[in-house]
Amino acid sequence: MTAPAIRAQTPGLLQASDLPVPARVVFAILSLLLAASVIQPYYWPASHGLDVTGNQIGRDFINTWAGPQLAFAGRAADLYNLEIYQKAIGQLFGAPLNPHNFSYPPHGAILFWPFAQFPYGVALTLWLLTTFAALAAAMLSQLPRKDYAWALGLLVISPAVVINTLSGQNGCLSGALLLGGLMIMDRRPLLAGVMFGLLTYKPHLGLILVTVLLARSAWRTIAAASITTIGLVALSVVLFGPDPWHLFATKTSAVQIFLLQAWSGFYVMMMPTWFAAFRSLGASYEAAMAVQLVLTIAVIATTAWAVRQTNDPAWHGLIAAAATPLALPYAFNYDLPALAVACVWVMLGRIELGQLPRWLIGLAWFAPLLSMQLVLRDIPIAQVGLLGFYVYVLVELAKTAQHKTQNPHRYAAPKSAAFPVTAPSTP
For residues 228 and 231, what is the distance between their CA atoms, to the nearest angstrom? Predict the structure, then answer.
């Protein structure tokens, strides 16, 4: 059954928020223009596999490709020694490279190992295609076939996917594991747990996910995720020994804290968090972290409330994707492809958000690239957009929850739905 048919059989839903075709075209054009404004000065290919800034094409994929090679060659501990690691990746490429940091836990090298079996260029291509395909599959699972072309077209040019592609990063993989798991959690709780366990290669992204799982009392999924994580950690200890874990816990965390304290370099342009906003406005590390902590607590609390207002997995995906960058001080624009998928669902009417202002969804949609343009100009509009979008989601959920309390019989879900309806209902 298509999304319009579900809406027709589910009285009481808020009015459709899907964007008309002309608005979608405008979003697509603006996405391409914004991408061009970033590609030309920072990512345009130069020569010898480098871009105009002297970085290797694919940039951060170097870690994904080189890390497993070193780890499985008996050098896993070297991944967490910056000086040794820098020399090692230079030897793999045959020339010195700009600084890199393998910031993943040791079992990340296990997950990345298949891609390290190919030459760098082939591996990068396979990485980008397969991880995008996985994200697209999670997105399309919630849409009727007639919307596939628009959905894929919008996703491939979305600012979050563009910056993930240019950076050679893993945002599409993280988004696929997060959203894919949430989409199947009610039907396949154990498989969803395995997917969430795999997501621990980037553990900080699980903060909001843990909140969602606890709020939904998803104990079977939590158990499967825990067993998967323990199994991956144990396997990494068997393969690499315990030392890499000690170094990851001490050295890597110290590097990340230093980056937040130093606040200088290209990476500050790529952090759409509220910690980053206040640091760019001149706040000290301590003051910015204090503000972030207050916001993190508020986001965790409101997320726990929000996911209990609906049984619809697409809504859960939207809530998790919108909340995660707000709750973390350390997150990057390439971590936002999951939010791009949620925006596509809104644009195509899969998720109803009432009369959502187009400028508000636009701020959330363009935030991954807007942050690069505006952070150094002390204009944290990307953060404002992400927060405004999340607050709007909460307001619409509150309205619908109130409507449901007043008219509970109007929110009965049609039994023939091909996927869960968008009508929020408490568990």
Answer: 5
